[in-house]
Design goal:
Blueprint (H helix, E strand, L loop, with lengths): L3 H5 L11 E5 L4 H14 L6 H14 L3 E2 L3 E2 L2 E4 L6 E7 L16 E8 L3 H15 L2 H10 L2 H11 L6
Parallel strand pairs: 1-5, 3-6, 4-6
Antiparallel strand pairs: 2-3, 5-6
Length: 164
């Protein structure tokens, strides 16, 4: 039997090399989210870029999405999202972005997009990804990879329950 998550992800993983931005330079968290969401839009995972970004920014104003260890996880469930997706940005040295984490700015940004009706998938992706990102060796692997395919594989393998 297929679960809610595995059904929608059977053709492609949560992220792909095309959804990874290395050496990201952004003016702030809205710009970082916009750059990552544009990649999702180009890949056909978001139907309305501006509509989706309004929801991401609205969510960001409700509560900071910074995690300890230099990570930002802006996210939204939206009717504009066709499949659960994660876009990843690794900032250029010196271009870290404030996502409101207590320990400082983020150099790893993971934009999480899920379809509006996929409430349980959204929570599962957020909690599983957060557990992985709390591990220093996982964060360091993402930072050191410097390769879109390796980063996509690390993210997808941290969420293997979706591919069953």
């Amino acid at each position: 039997m297929m679960t809610e998550g595995s059904l929608e992800l059977s053709e492609a993983g949560l992220t792909t090399p095309e959804l990874v931005i290395l050496e990201m330079e952004a003016t702030g968290k809205e710009d970082a989210a916009a750059q990552l969401a544009a990649r999702m839009h180009e890949q056909g995972r978001i139907s309305d870029l501006n509509g989706f970004l309004e929801q991401v920014n609205s969510r960001e104003h409700q509560m900071a999405t910074g995690l300890p260890g230099g990570v930002g996880i802006p996210h939204a469930r939206s009717k504009y999202v066709s499949q659960t997706s994660i876009a990843v940005g690794v900032t250029r040295f010196g271009h870290n972005i404030d996502f409101g984490a207590i320990d400082g700015k983020a150099d790893l940004i993971l934009l999480i997009a899920t379809p509006a009706e996929s409430f349980s998938v959204h929570l599962e992706v957020l909690s599983t990804l957060a557990r992985s990102l709390f591990k220093e060796n996982f964060r360091e692997s993402l930072r050191r990879a410097n390769d879109e395919e390796v980063i996509a594989e690390l993210i997808n393998s941290s969420l293997v329950f979706f591919n069953h």
